[in-house]
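Sample intake — DYW domain-containing protein
Collected from: Adineta ricciae
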Amino acid sequence: GKASSAYRARNVFDQISQPTNMSYSAMINAYGLNGSGREAVQLYRQIPTEIIDDIINLCVLNACSHSSLINEAEEIFRNIPIEKRTEKIYSTMIDCYNRSILVNKAEELLNQYEESHSPCYSMYMSFLSAARNQRDPLLAQKMFDRIEPYLKDQDIYATSAQVLLANTYALAGDSATASTIRTKMNQSGLKKLAGLSWTVVNGKVSKFRAHDRSHKQSKEIYAELERLTNELKGHGYQCDASWISRPMMNDETEECVLSGHSERLAIAFNLIQRPIPKRIQIMKNLRVCGDCHTFTKRVAEVRQCTIIVRDANRTHHFYPDGRCSCGDFF
């Protein structure tokens, strides 16, 4: 399932004569990662009640979250006794609401949780992600202000929260505020995690970082990337500069910054192989940005191949018909 083959996972699962809670949770998780939320819920409803545990509930709610299955998630959440609703269960249900732009419901659940619990970082990250996706700096600032007092000794969350806040302002067109936030981050010593992508070609793993030129075939990779970008422009692609998450240098263009993202280098590397592969698989340590998501959809369509990108949150299957398995819901 984690290798983007939910159907193969199901083949293995079907060979288990008496599935355990671990078997069910692994299969439901495989469906969820690969955008098959309905299949995850269907399997969940077949599980004997007595073996349903926290992990199974968490996996199915996560699958619902990534497929925008709000009614199904609410039904499952309601059926979990209050005393068994763990921090992770609440976090996943809040994330489910936020991904479907039901921020008010998410905030109600957050307030309910905090009546008897300390603030949970992951819940606020969910709100900040929702604010970024909705390009809503007011929501982002509101939630950042609520969690900021608790971030003093949490460098990882503090960095992620400020990056999401800055990106939200940038996406909303307020580049000045975004730049101020990033400058303060640099001054405080907080560093954004570098984007990395891995792909396997001819049995060997190749790793790329953003704007990487260390690969021995970098010249060919960048030439292919330029050809590919120009080809996509002919099919209506335009780069979305609002996804640029750092200050630009004087000699940089918006297209240049976005074209250097690590997953694009990995895609171009696959496309210079002969024969050209019909299936490209990439793993990325961060979430795919909106512009790279659009770019990869167009590549799969124009070059008639399947591109699978497993990012920090889920697996995207980009098909030759121009669709992504996430339904542009990520």
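Post-analysis note: Residues 196-318 form one domain.
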